[in-house]
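Question (not urgent): is this output format expected?
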Amino acid sequence: MTERPGERPSLGSHVDVAGEGVHWDLGASQSYGQYLSLDRLLDAQHPQSDRHDEMLFIVIHQASELWMKLCLHELVAAVDHVRHDVLGPAFKMLARVARVQAQLAQSWDVLATMTPYDYSAFRDSLGRSSGFQSYQYRALEFLIGNRNPAMIEVHRRDAEVYARLEALLARPSLYDECVRLLARRGYPLPTGCLERDFRQPYVPHPAVEAAWLDVYRHPEERWDLYELAEKLVDLDHRFQLWRYAHLKTVERIIGYKRGTGGTSGVAYLSKALELRFFPELWTVRTSM
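Got this back:
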């Protein structure tokens, strides 16, 4: 077709698939929906009320759980690579988790389109269910390095989940393995930093900060450790942004009401903002 001067090209109403070789008949092959189990995935949304916005609330939280499943998949493998001093693949996995965290943080922007009235209209349908009970979120914190054994008590009625979290608590976290790596690379770290009760919270130590300080002062000679440190800081930083976005969304929608899980709501989430997974990697910035 020849265009006349000044005319815009016409836009078709459909995409021409002629000659594309589309497999209209799949034969014995599985379909896209079968591969992704979409029948189960898309049938997993069961609003407890007739309120329009409850579907948004359910989908956001279910999608977040899927993203967290991917984070756990990547972090478990990353911990194993650090344990065996194979850092290249670990860097890729940690970078992927950081990108997922950006998606998780942005999901709160979508939820924030729900007004206080919208949420209050179906909030009672939740009963005592709460994101506080997300075992995948708890597993993420345990795996990365924030250990608090008391947190698993809310899962006691689910024996399988409880046992899984207990087992995770008993093993070294990502940060524990990074500290052990520093020791294997020749840094003089006390035994208490390397062999400890991993169920208990990590306690910062001057020797660990001194080791990281040496890494930061000699990046050319310690490049892989330097890159590992920055990947950890990025992970910690993005986790904080995710927590902050959560807090502000909760504040915007329910104000300072108590959470459905029994916590103080915004006040509890504010305390979580003070947590650091890798404390010496933050304090070392002041020491440089």
